[in-house]
Amino acid sequence: MPVFIEAIKKIAPYFKYIVFGTAIVALLFIWKSKSNQLTQLEQAMALYKRQMSGQLTDKEKELQSAHIELGLSASKLMEQKALARAFEQDKIKTSAEFETFKKKHNLELESYQKTIASLKQQINGGTTVVSGGEPRLPGDPRPDPQFNKPIDPQVSKLAYDWKSEDGRFELQDPDVFVHNNETFKLQQNFRITGEVYREKAGFLKTQRLTVEEVLPDGTNPDGTVKYKTVASANVVDSHFNYTERAPDSWVPKKSVFGVWGIISGSFSLNNGLNPRFMLGTGIEFLQWRGLGVGLQLYFDTSQWKESGFGVSLSYRPTIKGTKLNLGVNIGIATQFQQPFQSYIPILGLNFYLW
Which of 52, 94, 169, 266 is close enough to 164 for a disulfide, judged by CB 3.0 to 4.6 Å? Predict the structure, then answer.
C-alpha cells in the first residue's frame, strides 16, 4: 500500500488533467460508438429494402437463380403476407389435423418449396416364370382374336409390349420364349413440396414434406404446366435441422466502447491513512477482455464532505460465455471540497447494472 500511495503522490499534480482527459475521451468514444451503431443499422435496413424490392447485385442474382446441375432451385425473397398469398395460389394441400397443429403451436409459414422431379428408369432382364396347360373355364375371359392360331416356339417368336395409358410404365419383351430379355421402363413426375413453419413468438421451427406423383394436365392461366395428382407417398423418416440467426443479427454488434452503469462498494484511505468505506456510482465507457475504464462518484459513508470523484480501472470476469455483473476495481479519487488538491486510492467491487 505505501508503494501505491507514493505512486499517487507522483501523479497527483497531473490528476486533474487525467480526469478531464478521461471524461472528454469517454464522451468522444460514446459518440463514436453510437454513430457507428446508427450507421450499421441504416446499412442493414438499406440492404433489407434493396433486396426486398428486387434490386439485386449479379452475385445475389446468381444465388437466387436455378443451378440444375447442383440440385438447387430458384428462390424469391418475399414479405410474410406475399408469401402466404403465393402459398394459397399454388393450392398446396394441407390437412385439417395439420391446420389444428399450426393453431395450437401458433406457427406461421416461413418458407416453402414446390419442385417437380422427373424419374426415368429402365430395368432390363429379370426372372420369367411361365405356367399354362390349365383348361379354360366358361367364366374366364375369351382370348383375343390375334391368338387364334397356334404358335410354334421353334418357328415363330411371340413379342409382348404393354404400356400404361398415361405413359408412366411400359413393359417390353421381344421374345416371350426367351428368358431374361424383358425391359421395364418408368417415366414418372413427382411434385415435392416442403414447407417450413416457425413460432410467431420464438425461434423453434418445424417442416412439412409431401411427395405426390403427378401427370401433366393442361396449362395454368400464366402458361405454366398444370399437373394432376395420381399417387401420393408417405414420408417414412425425416430430420429437419436448422440454425436461427441471433435476435441481434440485424442490429449493430457491440464494440469495446459503450455505456455500462456501475454501483460500487470500495475502501479508501484518507489523508490520515484511515480506512473509509465508499459507495460509488458511475459509468464505464470501455470494456475489453474483461478490463474496463470508467468515471465514478464516490460517497464517503462516515464523512460525506470527504466524498469525491475519480477514474477507475476494473476487471469483469466472464464465466462460460456470460459476463458476470460483479467485478473488482482500483481507482484514484479527489474530494469535492478540495478538487485536485488531495487524492485517495480506491479499491473495491463493482456491481454492473447491465
Answer: 169
End-to-end CA distance of the chain: 32
pLDDT tens string 304-350: 777 888 888 999 998 887 888 899 998 888 888 778 777 788 889 99
Q: Which residue reads 435496413 in cell numbers?
A: 45
Task: Look up residue 92 and give its three cell numbers.
Answer: 398446396
Would you say 349 and 264 are in contact if contact means Cβ atoms under 8 Å apart? Answer: yes
Residue pair 329/348 in contact (Cβ under 8 Å)? The answer is: yes
Q: Closest by alpha carbon to 261, among 288, 236, 297?
A: 297
Other CB atoms closer than 10 Å to residue 236's CB: what's the count?
A: 5
Cell numbers given for 104: 395450437
| pLDDT single digits (tens) 215-259 | 988 898 888 888 989 888 887 777 777 666 665 565 555 567 778
Interatomic CA distance for residues 260 and 316, integer angstroms: 12
Name the CA dihedral angle for 347, 348, 353, 354, rounded to a multiple of 10 degrees.
70
Size of the chain, expressed as the number of residues it contains: 354
CB 65 within 8 A of CB 74: yes
Classify 64 in phi/psi space as left (phi over 0), alpha (psi -120 to 50) or beta.
Answer: alpha
What confidence tens digit (pLDDT) does each residue in 314-327 have?
999 988 878 888 99
Alpha carbon distance 36, 120 (integer Å): 57
Alpha carbons 64 and 61: distance in angstroms, whole number? 5
CA distance 1 to 4: 5
In whole angstroms, what is the distance from residue 98 CA to residue 119 CA? Answer: 29
* Cα–Cα distance for residue pair 117/192, rounded to 1 Å: 7
- What CA–CA distance (Å, rounded) separates 341 from 19? 13
